[in-house]
Amino acid sequence: MRKPETIERLYLDFDGFFAAVEQQCDRRLRGRPIGVVPFDGTDRTTVIACSREAKAYGVKNVMPVREARQRCPGLVLVPQKPDLYRRAHNALLSEIETVIPIDAAKSIDELTCRLDEADRHDPVDLARRIKVAIRENIGPWITCSIGFAANRQLAKIACKEGKHSKGSYGDGLAIWDPEDMPEPLFAVPLDDIPGVGSNMKVRLQMAGVVTTEELYSLQPKHMRKLWGNVTGERLWYALHGYDIQAQPSGRGMFGHGRVLPPDSRTVPAAREISRLLLTKAARRLRRENYYAGGLWLWLSTRSGTWLGKTELPIVRDDQAVLKALTGLWGQVEKAFPRGVMIFRVGVTLYDLSPASERQLDLLLRDDRTRQRWENISQAIDELNARYAGTVVSLGYWNPPKGGHVGGKISYTRVPSAEDFW
């Protein structure tokens, strides 16, 4: 395994991305503390993103609006505009690629690049050129923090540390040369190490590991044992500066979830929204050429989370998945005969198989019916693609208040244009 002797990776993270895009596009919001919320007109929701001005008051992402207003009475609430953020993402990547090729967009607000020989010798100038391209061609309200290191994982950690350097937030720069390591890494809290979540932190503490330096001092096999798989050993090599390449990840599921507006928190309203979300998930399933063998429906209620699942006969058409969803809502009505207040609803198609590997259920013998429904779903998809919108659907199409069905702020993937039809 190769251990680079110089920096080879750049990791870039846009600062307060969603709020910054709002400020760049609406001059009335510039310089003001703003919080991006799922929908307008109510305090019974959560701030899902906030500007640096709001963060200075102690407002944080995923904070209840009422608490955020207590910390920052002048907080301006802005309903989310997911399609705007998607278009801003594409525009920003286009500008960055005029300076350096992008190796991978890790999320809508993070990306990584490989460095050539010239950039390795002058990372400060490279960071300056990237920031100048964004400032002059997009605007000054969208800034980014950049980390340089021997591998992607260390560059990501450096980027996060640079974001909060010198007592300020954003527009940072951190360069971790291999010859200076591992001292900069030891200053990083254990919580900020990618792969150390809350549960893993507890497990490490039980093993006597409470600092990053103590984690660094473990042996690779010991970390593998603590994690229970090869992820721990791979993290050891990453922290020690080895060139660890991310393992290709296969598609595991297609799903959508949504926080419900106050007037849509009944069983009938949540059921209708789940139907639209599942239709969107099935469209994505077909676009990426998969079949699904199972469906989850999950609900967040005042008393906790309800989860139901059902098997599917390896399908991809709207009729089959919507029929299965109807059965799951029947379970909900049995579980809550008097009704229940639902705050969030989600649907997930899982147990995926590529279209080329589909295996039919010989006992079910419904392939002819399935093919007919698949042809209908394909015809619907083609019509919607022609008009870049949902003009045809299986059942009534009435998106809920507060934005797009299936197209929302995403921290784990970059939405496509089709998500907003």
Automatic annotation (TrEMBL):
Its EC number(s): 2.7.7.7
Keyword terms: DNA-directed DNA polymerase, Mutator protein, Nucleotidyltransferase, Transferase
InterPro entries registered for this protein in UniProt: DNA/RNA_pol_sf, DNA_pol_Y-fam_little_finger, DNA_polymerase-Y, IMS_HHH_1, Rev_trsase/Diguanyl_cyclase, UmuC
Domain of life: Bacteria
Uppermost EC category: transferase
Reaction(s) the record says it catalyses: DNA(n) + a 2'-deoxyribonucleoside 5'-triphosphate = DNA(n+1) + diphosphate
UmuC domain boundaries: 9-197
Entry's family note: Belongs to the DNA polymerase type-Y family.
Quaternary structure note: Monomer.
The protein's role, per its UniProt record: Poorly processive, error-prone DNA polymerase involved in untargeted mutagenesis. Copies undamaged DNA at stalled replication forks, which arise in vivo from mismatched or misaligned primer ends. These misaligned primers can be extended by PolIV. Exhibits no 3'-5' exonuclease (proofreading) activity. May be involved in translesional synthesis, in conjunction with the beta clamp from PolIII.
Listed name of the protein: DNA-directed DNA polymerase
